[in-house]
Amino acid sequence: MERFKEFLKRKNIIISAKRYGIDALGAMAQGLFCSLLIGTILNTLGTQFHIGFLTMPVYETETVSYTIGGFASAMVGPAMAASIGLALQAPPLVLFSLVPVGFATNLMGGAGGPLAVLVVAIVASEFGKAVSKETKIDILVTPIVTILVGIGLAYVVAAPIGAAASQVGKLIMWATDLQPLLMGILVSVIVGIALTLPISSAAICAALSLTGLAGGAAVAGCCAQMIGFAVMSFKENGVGGLVSQGIGTSMLQMPNIVKNPKTWIPPIVASAITGPIATCIFKLTMNGPAVSSGMGTCGLVGQIGVYTGWLSDIEAGTKTAITAFDWVGLILICFVLPAVISTVVCKFLRKIEWIKEGDLKLD
């Protein structure tokens, strides 16, 4: 057993919740962002602003035509797998071999492909690392082992994992449609908390294919965290803090939350209020990419996702037009209400000294 532990240590194979549940999951979200999400944004920009080089096909087959954004979106599987391999500190031959593994796994995983890619890429990466540089023909052995293990495992588990993740997502969306008040609160609060924790809310939403009304609640929860922390900590952090948290990430506040968990109350209260407002009053839906549901105001990706969903609905004939009510709801839920609610609650907590001067200061 000791020799095995030494082998794992030498190969930098660390079996831990942090390595797989935080590092790999967070990296997977970056892969999603740089492929599927960027592809969607480019296609939307091209269509809305009539940018020729973004809308014209770069390459066509008998059945499919690809724009620049289309190519980016098509590479979501390889991008996720390579991102995960990088997070696990895979050597080059393993990292490059994960590209076909990610493509195959995402394809076989269907709607729940991202979760399947997470599982398969982790296993394939660790097996690849285990054999890396152990033979004199490493250039053959390492890619072969990584690809065979990865695609072989994907053949067995990708479809079941993908189907299970998809069913969980559908269950959440069904429950939200059935009980928009209760589920609006739960989804908004839980996904919002996940956004601020050192895990990836975007990857979770993508893995569960969380869209529709539940996706709208998730957007509300994420915005409540980011805008809430950004505005209520403006006194301590100024414009820099406003920008870095408001369109960056509320995760910057985690050290302060650990020191004083009460600082988390205002944005959580905001998410508990804006979530059901999104689901019950404005019927805010996320019919763009599922990963956008867990992005909030980060680069305005959540709002762009909602907007692209509106366009998709119009194109599909399920929505006639984007109304003023739609825009008012989006602005209130994503920006105005989180700022107001978090500020009011924070002022009260400062008054009773649950939150003190400097508690929200970023290092």
SSE layout and pairing:
Blueprint lengths: L1 H9 L6 H32 L3 H4 L3 E2 L4 E2 L1 H7 L1 H12 L4 H18 L3 H19 L6 H41 L1 H17 L4 H7 L4 H21 L1 H13 L7 H6 L5 H17 L19 H16 L7 H28 L12
Antiparallel strand pairs: 1-2
Report on the architecture of this protein.
This protein has two domains: 2-162, no CATH class; 179-351, no CATH class. 74% of the residues lie in helices and 1% in strands. The chain has helices at residues 2-10, 17-48, 52-55, 68-74, 76-87, 92-109, 113-131, 138-178, 180-196, 201-207, 212-232, 234-246, 254-259, 265-281, 301-316, 324-351; strands at 59-60, 65-66. With 363 residues, it is mainly alpha-helical. The model has no long low-confidence stretch (mean pLDDT 93). The longest helix is centred in the middle third of the chain and has 41 residues, at 138-178. Strands 1-2 form a two-stranded antiparallel ribbon.
Strand arrangement, major sheet: 1-2
Q: Tell me the radius of gyration.
A: 22 Å
Question: Which quaternary structure do these chains form?
Answer: single chain
Mean pLDDT: 93
Shape field:
globular
Q: How are helices and strands ordered from N to C?
A: HHHEEHHHHHHHHHHHHH
Largest sheet report: 2 strands, antiparallel
User: Percent range for helical residues?
Assistant: over 70%
Task: Tell me the number of helical segments per DSSP (H or I, 4 or more residues long).
Answer: 16
Structural class call reads mainly alpha
How many beta strands in the DSSP annotation? 2
Number of domains: 2
In whole angstroms, the N-to-C terminal distance is: 43 Å
User: Are there runs of 5+ residues with pLDDT below 50, and where?
Assistant: none
Q: In what range is the share of β-strand residues?
A: under 5%
